[in-house]
Design brief:
Layout lengths: L20 H8 L3 E5 L2 E4 L1 H20 L2 E3 L5 E3 H6 L12 E4 L5 E4 L4 H8 L11 E10 L14 E11 L2 H21 L6 E6 L9 E7 L5 E6 L4 E4 L5 H7 L6 E16 L1 H5 L3 E3 L5 E3 L1 E8 H11 L1 E2 L2 E2 L10 E5 L4 H16 L4 E4 L6 H11 L3 E5 L1 H5 L3 E5 L6 E3 L1 H7 L5
Parallel strand pairs: 3-7, 9-12, 19-20, 19-21
Antiparallel strand pairs: 1-2, 4-6, 5-6, 7-8, 8-16, 9-10, 10-13, 11-12, 11-13, 13-16, 14-15, 17-18, 21-22, 22-23
The chain binds one RNA strand of 74 nucleotides through helix 10 and helix 11.
Amino acid sequence: MKQSQLFTKTKKESPADEISKNAELLIKGGFIHKEMAGVYAFLPLGLRVIEKIKTIIREEMNAVGGQEVYMTTLQPRDIWEKTDRWDDKKVDNWFKTKLKNGEEVGVGLTHEEPIVDALGGYVSSYRDLPVSIYQIQNKFRNELRAKSGILRGREFMMKDMYSFARTEEEHLKIYEEVAQAYHRVYRRLGIGHITYRTYADGGIFTKKFSDEFQTISGVGEDTIYVDEEKNIAVNKEIYTDENLAKLGLDKAKLVEKRAIEVGNIFPLESKYTDALGVYYTDEHGEKKSIISGCYGIGVSRTMGVLAEIFSDDNGLMWPESVAPFHVHLLVLGDKEEPQKAADKLYADLVKKGIEVLFDDRTGVSAGEKFADADLLGMPYRVVVSERSLKDGGYEVKKRTEEKGKIVTEDELLKLLKAKS
RNA sequence: CGGGGCGUAGUAUAUCGGUAGUAUAUCUGUUUUGGGAACAGAAGGGCCGAGUUCGAUUCUCGGCGCCCCGACCA
């Protein structure tokens, strides 16, 4: 894409009403637009990051048999009453609104009820199970306090999957497969090495532990205790001698860290399926409960976490897997020769299927283009200028490195691992 | 929801009970182009409401909004 066509612009000043690094950088770079507290819109560059994160998640969910759906935001009251989650005293962060006839409807904050209810129309035999259903969609939660930019909003994007199994054993197998898929997602996002599967409280519906995926970061809201050898952690909320013994963890080996929850999976047993009257009939004609699990990843939050982790004083440093563009191509000076060379290189790279943001703006100083490239944080910066041409080609520099080098077009293509 | 802070131009800030200033962004022109260029010109501002006052952006009260700490976070 040509930067001259991009409607967003970078800002020199940091927003006065945002302290958190993710919001500061993403707003300065024009990735997101703040609508109100805890509610952010995604602009072209930000949306590209979101879509890449979604693609990674989608691929991994599909790989463990997930079937994608898109449930509704508006929710009927009755199914939530069946599970006793409609009452504001039971669930205090509902957004609710009314139809013209006065009937109350909910604005979706999670989707166990509608998914289970819909499933009931199709699943009734042991032959129909197991199934896993997921969606990537916005959730609405009326938080008392939104904070930390896109890390904790009132409207946010989430991947939520729900699994349905015939037996506890079958459920556990799926549960573990999804947990492994989560590890793969975080690895692909570049945070695998600092993201731990963390035992946490299972919530009010199960006595079992839930598993959070916690990424080590100072912006985290949670304190966890990490066993580096076993590559797992325990949330402070269940950090008792009794629980540690149950989990077979040695207190002496645990290290306290701040972390942010980027995913959460937990067993639901048959709480929702039973409450909504969704059962299956087994081989012997016997009616049985369906064992389910739910699996969430905050997509928009994850983008914020990546912005927090992959950034320096000059701006963002997107991992290649989620960067809006692979290459930021800069042309310096308004002279004809570099302009022509840059136009050609841009066309060639695009032809090779490389995603390029081309800073073709005229009348913009070199310093400003460099500053923008650092702020926007594409993995590779390629400069075309009189000087680079004189030196024999183009200067390529990784965002994470200090110095670049001059390469020819062929060398550049090889470096970018172009598929021809 | 408890506590604290803040609200001035698109953005970021300053001053002041009496003509609201600067930077940046924007527009025009000339020059410039390897780390946020220079000069000249233009346009643009006091969250809402009430009160005090000759006069309020400034003081008081209320509302709304935003940030931070805490609580909350199935």
